[in-house]
Amino acid sequence: MNPFKTSKIIFSAYLLIFLGAAATHVHGQKLGISFLHDDWAVTCDNTLTCRMEGYSAEGGDSSGGVLITRSAGPNARLHGAVTLGGYDDTTSDPCPPVLKLMVDGEEKARLKYPGKDSSTYPLTQAQVLVLLAAAKNDKMIEFEGGDESFVLSGKGISAVMLKMDDIQGRVGTPGALIRKGKKPETSVRAPVPMPVIRAAKTIDKPVSRELTASEAQAIEPMLWKTKGEVCSLHEPEQENGREAESFTLTPVDERHALISTPCMMAMYQGTVAYWLTDKRGKKVIKFLLEDVDAYYVGESGIIASSGRGRGLGDCLGGSDWVWNGTDFLRSSEWSTGRCRGQLGGTWHGENSILTYVAKVIPPK
To answer: Hey, how many other C-beta atoms are within 10 angstroms of the C-beta on 210?
Structure first.
C-alpha cells in the first residue's frame, strides 16, 4: 500500500472542507454542503445554516475576507463580518478602529472595530445587502483602513448566492439573494433540528500504555478486519529498515477502552486510527475513525482532530467526537475557510466555517 494514500474517510471529510462537494456522509452522519466558484464559496452545515465567504482576487496584492451567515427558515436575517489579512488582536499593530466600506470610490458605511478578542468587523444586514448588490454588479468594493485597502472580488458571487438560495429553498421568494419572486416565505426550507448527544462520564485522567507484542499480535487481525484495510504504516514493506508502529490502549470508562495507532503519513501530517474495545483491549467492539492528527482528551471524553489543508497552514480543519456511553458520536466539523494565504486560516471561533454541529448535553 502506498504510504501517501489517504483513506476514503479522510478524503471525503477533507474534500468537503477544502475543495467543496455535495452533501457527504461520514460514519452514517450527514455533513454539510459546500460549493465554490472563483473568489467566493458557500458552506451549509447539517442544520442548513449557510456561510458565504468572499476574498480579494487570488494572487492580488491585498488580502482580507468577508463572511456572510444566514440561518435556514423564512425571513432569516443576514449577518456579516469583515477581516483584514495580517491583523488580529494579538499583533503589535492592532486593527484600525474604523473601516470604511467604499463602492466605486463612494463611502457607503463605516465599520467599527469591536476591540479585544476580535479580529473582525461586524456588518449589519443593510450593509450586507449593499455589499452583495455592488459585488454582483461588478462594482469596485474596498474596505479602507490601516496601511492598505482590502479590495473585495466579485468573481463567483452570483453563482454562490444562487447556490445558497437553492440549498435553503429561497429561489423565487422575496427573501432570495439573486432570483427574487412572489413565492411565499413559508415555502422556504425550515432549519433542520440540531442532533442531540448526551455525553457520558469518562475516566478523568486515563493512563495509556502500549500493547505488548503478544497482545498486539493477538488483536491485530481483528483491528484490520473491522477497519476494512491495513494502515499503510503497518504494511510489511513499510516496516523494512524502521521500527514498526505500536498500538496504544487507553481506558475510557470501567467497561471500555480505546486502541489507537499512527495510520498514514503524508508530507507534513499524518492520520491516527481508533477502535473501541473492551476495557482490557482483548475484544474489538468497532472501528471508530481515522483522521488527521487525532487525539483523545480523557477529561472531556472527546476524540479530536485537526489538520492543515496545505503545508503553508493557511487553511485548517477538524472534527470532534463525543463519548455517549456506547459510542463516539461526531459533534462538530469545522474549517477556517479557503486556502488564501492567511497563516492559521481566515475564520475562527464563532466565525468558523461549520459543516456539522450538534448539541452536547454534559454528563450528570
So the answer is: 12
pTM for the model stands at 0.88
Interval 58-106: pLDDT, tens:
766 557 899 999 999 999 999 999 998 765 545 555 688 999 999 999 9
Q: Which of 157, 166, 120 is nearest to 41 (CA)?
A: 157
Query: Do residues 198 and 324 make contact, with C-beta atoms less than 8 angstroms apart?
Result: yes
CA distance 133 to 29: 36
Residue range 156-183, pLDDT digits in tens: 999 999 999 999 999 999 999 999 999 9
Contact 138, 158 (CB under 8 A): no
Nearest to 131 by CA among 100, 159, 176: 100
Integer angstrom CA distances of residue 149 from 13, 21, 99, 145, 240: 35, 32, 9, 6, 55
Q: What is the CA radius of gyration of the chain?
A: 23
In 294-306, which positions are buried (b, 16+ CB within 10 angstroms) versus exposed (e)? bebebebbbbbbb
CA 11, CA 230: separation in Å to the nearest integer?
16
What is each CA distance from 337 to 146, 187, 190, 343, in whole angstroms?
24, 30, 25, 12
Give me the numbers of helices (H) and strands (E) for the chain, helices first please: 5, 24
Q: What domains does the chain contain, in order, with CATH numbers?
A: 32-187 (2.60.40), 196-361 (no CATH)
- Angle between the N-to-C axes of helices 157-168 and 125-136, in degrees from 0 to 180, rounded to the nearest 10: 130
The one-letter amino acid at 272: V
